[in-house]
Amino acid sequence: MPQSIEQALIAATALLTPSSDSAKLDAQALLLSILDKPRSYLFSWPEKHLTEQQEAEFNRACQRRLQGEPVAHITGIREFWSLPLKVNATTLIPRPDTETLVEYALGLELPHAANVLDLGTGTGAIALALASEMPNWQVLGVDRVPEAVALANENQQRLNINNATFALSNWFSAVNHKKFDLIVSNPPYIEYDDEHLSQGDVRFEPLSALVADDDGMADIKQIITMARDYLATNGYLLIEHGYQQSVKVQEFFAQMSYSHILTVKDLGGNDRVTLAQWPK
What's the pLDDT score for residue 69? Predict the structure, then answer.
């Protein structure tokens, strides 16, 4: 007879513990994906037995996780800002730290019907989070990877967030010269020799979405430089960056004549987002 939910979770947690620092949560997420149930189901029906098919699927999913494959890639879903987003290997998996950018952007004093641009949108996470909270905003997300744009469009349609649109563009290359009240971006900012690139989930994510030349600053500098032509008067640019890059980002904002430069810390207390206003 197949295992009960409780038995399956205990066994899977023990299996995954040597290779994951979140083994219990990983096991729960994998099983919930297979059962297609809310988390409360695991605690309400611990004695309920899996079907043979469910047990087989769960075992396969655990083996994939044991090999290091991200849970989000196995389940195909990652929650961001309470939005269940489809994910795949063509783009980054949305991370909780990026919610810092969303939270701060929502607190800015912007026009009621603000025009917003999300550069390197990936799954559409930032754009869709902002659009979901501000239905009067018009949010455009762009990415240079066609598969990412297709994924963002799919998430927009699934979530029925009608004030967000997505388009193919290498940063500003295909953006018409309209003015935006807010530009946001989580660009590549990791150095090529960073040891973290060989650890954890990032091993399964596209390198082009993670790393940048000039000690991780190349794309950040390009965005800061070019955004000046696309920001409305008193518009804001918010950029996510590495925890050790805030001083360099602030200095480059200043060199490019931005004002009101500020760095915001994430939930872990690390410098994560730097913003500035245009013009000086």
Answer: 83
H-assigned helices in 38-135: 40-44, 52-66, 71-75, 99-106, 125-133
With the CA atoms of 165, 265, 244 and 127 taken in that order, what torsion angle do they form, in degrees rounded to the nearest 10?
0
pTM above 0.90, yes or no: no
Whether residue 210 is found in the same domain as residue 101: yes
More confident residue, 257 or 90: 257
pLDDT of 4 reads 86
Residues 106 and 35 in one domain: no
| Dist. CA 78–CA 95, nearest whole Å | 9
Please give the C-alpha separations between residue 7 and each of 23, 34, 184, 206, 259, in angstroms, as whole numbers.
15, 16, 45, 36, 58
Q: Assess whether pLDDT exceeds 60 at residue 65.
A: yes
Last residue of a domain, one of 46, 68, 90: 68
